[in-house]
Each structure stands twice: as C-alpha cells, then as structure tokens.
Automatic annotation (TrEMBL):
This is N-acetylglucosamine-induced protein 1. Signal peptide: none annotated. It comes from the Eukaryota. GO terms for biological process: N-acetylglucosamine metabolic process. Pfam families: DUF3605. It comes from Cucurbitaria berberidis CBS 394.84. GO terms for cellular component: cytoplasm.
Length: 222
C-alpha cells in the first residue's frame, strides 16, 4: 500500500478548491516554528484556557503563546502586504493604528494619558474566546535588562501599578506581560500586553475608544 505524502505546510487549512499551485510569497521566508504551526490542521490545535494563560504568564514562558494555525497564516499574509504598502509594520502601527504624528513623550512613564494608547491585539493568540487581549502602546520607554532582554524590576513595578490602576476596579481577573526583546514583532514602539478574563463590553469600548482589531475589520470587509 503506497505511503501518502504529507501535505505541504502551505496547503494546511486551505479548502482544496483554493489550493495554490506553489507556496505563496508571504510564506516563502518562514521560520521552522511558523512552518510547523501553519502546517497543523486547526482541528488539532487546542486553544489555551484562562488557567493555562495565567500559568504561562506567571512562569514567564510567554514564548509559548502561539496563534491558531489559520490565524497565523492570515497574519503572515497581512504583514507581508503591510510591508509592501507602508514600508514596515512599525509605520503601519504608528500611522494607521495609533495615529500618532510624533513619538516624543510629553512626560515620564505613565505621567500623561496622551502618551498612552490601549488597542486590541490585531492578531490575538490561540486563547479561550472569553479572554480579551489588549496591547498598551506608550511613547515613553520601559527599561529592559540589556543582558536578558526582560523588563527590569523597576519597569515591572511601573507597569504593574499602571495596570492595577487602570483595570482592577473594572475587571476581576487579568494578567499582563511584556514580551522579551527577542520575541517582539514591533520593537520600535514600546508596548506591553494585558489579557482580561470575561471583561465588561462597555468598559472595553471605553478603554479602547471603540477600537476594532484588524482581524475583525478584514473579516467584516470580506
């Protein structure tokens, strides 16, 4: 009995009648890690529960966060087009998503609201739908340890106090983390992540100023 050849990673999760004849350009330069994820059928991917999210953040294993295979494919396609249109992902974030005309902060860390913007994560990880993933973007820097690339104790305290002030009175369960420098997809603009478990919709509308993540914008536009 002939052995069936494994499906190329770039055909996974694509309807057979939409299979490209060769690997798309946006997937040609792909790490082995991304190839492995994209090549996994969605039905074999298990989303992270809230308990698992808390454990990963608490143990500083944020490198274990991954997107659902089909979402990672869409993300790669989207960012490929972004670079063609805007020149870089950073330019898109600053000009389109943040709409900041300049990046010079008015003051020190968390001193002025105008130096901070909270938006949805455009391409969230494979997590329980009850978990909302936000990104807090800042014009000011937050110090990292030059050797480890992780936040210093001082910047961890600054972020923790801000997150507590901003979310604790409105959301019962939440976590925050700042990606190690080596994991950042956008390094030129400072940011950290906040995940909320079953937050109130009105609070989300207020805190994000009515933001809609790009993955939903693209889905609604067809």
């Amino acid at each position: 009995m002939p052995i069936e050849e494994p499906l190329p990673f770039w055909l996974a999760n694509v309807p057979r009648d939409q299979w490209p004849t060769e690997c798309p350009d946006f997937l040609k330069v792909c790490s082995e890690k991304d190839r492995s994820i994209i090549g996994t059928p969605d039905e074999q991917y298990a989303v992270l529960t809230w308990e698992e999210v808390r454990e990963l953040v608490g143990s500083d294993r944020v490198d274990k966060f991954h997107r659902k295979p089909s979402e990672l494919r869409r993300y790669r396609q989207f960012t490929y087009r972004l670079v063609e249109e805007y020149g870089s992902i950073t330019d898109f974030i600053v000009n389109k998503r943040l709409q900041w005309t300049q990046l010079e902060p008015r003051g020190g860390p968390f001193e002025y609201a105008e130096d901070i913007k909270i938006l949805y994560n455009d391409w969230p990880y494979g997590i329980d739908p009850d978990i909302v993933h936000l990104v807090v973007w800042t014009k000011f820097g937050l110090e990292d340890d030059p050797e480890t690339g992780r936040s210093t104790p001082e910047s961890q305290q600054e972020i923790g106090e801000y997150v507590q002030r901003t979310f604790a009175s409105k959301v019962q369960e939440f976590v925050w983390f700042k990606n190690w420098r080596s994991l950042k997809s956008v390094d030129a603009v400072e940011h950290f992540h906040v995940m909320l478990y079953k937050p109130d919709g009105e609070f989300l509308q207020h805190i994000t100023n009515g933001d809609v993540p790009m993955t939903e914008q693209l889905a609604s536009s067809g």
